[in-house]
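Researcher: Structure prediction, please.
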Amino acid sequence: MKDLEGYARIEGEGSPQRATLAWWPRDFASPRLLVWAELAWRSVCLLMFISGAVMMSVAQCQRTSNRDCAAQLSIWSPLLEAVEYEEHDWAPLIAATKKSGFTGPPTRDMEEKWKAIIEGTVEQGFVAANPDSPSSGYIAGVEVFHHLHCLNVLRQFMWRDSYPDDLVPSLLRFNSPPVARTHADHCIETLRQALMCNADVTPYLLYRAAPAPGSDVPAREDFQAFHKCRKFDHLLAWPLPDISPETGLLVLLLALLLVLVLVLVLVLVLALALVLVLPLRG
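Model: Predicted structure follows.
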């Protein structure tokens, strides 16, 4: 043990508990006040814990969905609420070309099939809504249907010499060949811009194969690649009756209400503590 000669013990005034509270005002050092101060501190900790739990729950409810991502990556459209995705392999091109019903010499069934996927589109232009309608603004079209219309125009122009008299489309019936060709050129340019704007970066593989006639490349493309696509049927059927409104705003309001209630509880606890403290100070 070290030599303690020359040292003296410093005696503190009062009890050890009061010595540790030397910085605290004498009137505030009563056990009753300390109990309420501890209660208030515990209430603050509880409020912070519950608030954190509520914020985490709201964050989980507000997790970004595919629809949210589509909205961030697209110009606003009322059809964004109908956007859903599906993943599948594309059909073999040769078989699909023969069986899809969208290609080949024109028939009445084929014309109806093309009409079904373009039905309801309006020619582009700023056409004001009917003043008697409850809606306001302008009548509008949707680009995907315009693109399909253009693809159909190219099909019709390519098969222009194969249409029966009772199936000749308006493009060929009411326009001269130069005008029809100009319309086809417009559609080629529209589709070029659309394909480059919505550039599909899905990779597809090449299989080993005997070179095709006139080619020395020993491979063939696998155009049946796996794709992630928007469900076109949902866009075609918009507005969808089964799409429920977003509940995120409701969840957020409930969370804010819960936080408000907790704050009010904390204020009441602090007010009660002050009511008990003020007589002690007097």
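Model: The longest strand covers residues 85-89.
Researcher: Thanks, that helps.
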